[in-house]
Amino acid sequence: MKKPLVLIVGSTFILLIGIVVWGLNFSSKTQDADSKLTAEMMAKSTSKKSQLPPAVSLFKVTNQTFSQYIVLTGTIEPTKVASLASPAEGPILNLVVREGDTVNLGQEILRIGRTHAADSLQTSAAEEVRKQVLNLKRIETLVKQHTLPEEQLDEALSSLEKAKAALSQAKQALNDYIVTVPWSGIISKVLVSDGHFVIPRSPLVEMYDPDSLVLRFSVAEAQALVLKKGHKVKATFDGLAGQEFELEIIRAYPDLDRKLRTRLFEASLPANEFIPGMFARIRVVQQEHKNTLVIPIDTLQVQGKDKSVFVVTDNIVTRRLVETGLEQDDQIEVLSGLKAGEIIVLTGIERVKNGSAVRVLEQPAENNSTGVEK
């Protein structure tokens, strides 16, 4: 009884092992089939994608005015300035100006308090003149009476002239206590206030002539000899956003800064609301070509000495050799090899070949570079 039972159990166990092995083998084959099917589908999808022409964007070639320029910065500065200093010693009195005030030629802006000695000097000099006048009259009378010789009259006249000269000097000394402006202008800085005690040559007030404002800028040595008096520059100012001014160089300084190796230039300003210290961005045109072809540098292919672009006709590209000229920022001039109106590849160049078809993503772009004028 035991042997048949053992045989039945053993057979059942072997059967179960066989079923498990068969199931594992079937699952493996199914997975292999699924993987193969997935790979085939991906390959077909990739094949379909690879059959599409490469996508590109285009650029339309047109005639432009193209400039090669250098970019500089500058500052508005007055060329006519004055620093008024104290002509005498004393306290500041009657200061009547502040920064930004407009003043006229000869206008009194402050006084310096006089000392008692200064007033006494003028009084003494005036008294001396009065005495010499009386003395002259007395001597004239005596000379007419032949009591005194005429030489005494000459001496009296000489003494009177000396007394008058001393009085004039005393009055001039008092005028030194009144400070007036030398010409019409604008007060830029006031360095004292009422009650401030000053000594001779102490700075009091600074002023400038608004009609003397210029745009002052420096140019590196490499371009220092390119610019001349009369040369035109274009400038924009942060304080006058949206406006561009064409200015004329009116002064070229004769030498270079020994440390910075730069040359200073000045350009005239129009009658606008400019103030000293305004910051300017300047474009100085070195060369300008009118009615020329200009393309983005990114459209250009360089192989050794050869330069070429891809011209698109009916969605077919053709490599075209070109000759280039001026270059500025991301733009370059084309001297030969292209015509106005032709379409060239702008982006996607790395995916195209000579004679291949392309798929256009967008309409041809036109040039809007700062170096280009339409």
TrEMBL record:
Q: Which Pfam families match?
A: Beta-barrel_RND_2, YknX_C
Q: Keywords in alphabetical order, please.
A: Coiled coil
Q: Tell me which domain of life the UniProt entry assigns to the organism this sequence originates from.
A: Bacteria
Q: Does the keyword Protease apply?
A: no
A cellular-component GO term for this protein? efflux pump complex
Q: Where is the CusB-like beta-barrel domain?
A: 216-287
Q: Which residues form a coiled coil?
A: 150-180
- YknX-like C-terminal permuted SH3-like domain span: 293-360
Keyword field contains ATP-binding: no
The GO molecular function terms of this record are: efflux transmembrane transporter activity
In which family does this protein belong, per the annotation?
Answer: Belongs to the membrane fusion protein (MFP) (TC 8.A.1) family.
Identify the PANTHER family for this entry.
Answer: HLYD FAMILY OF SECRETION PROTEINS (PTHR30469:SF15), MULTIDRUG RESISTANCE PROTEIN MDTA (PTHR30469)
**Protein name in the entry:** Efflux transporter, RND family, MFP subunit
Q: Where does this protein come from, organism-wise? A: Shewanella putrefaciens (strain CN-32 / ATCC BAA-453)
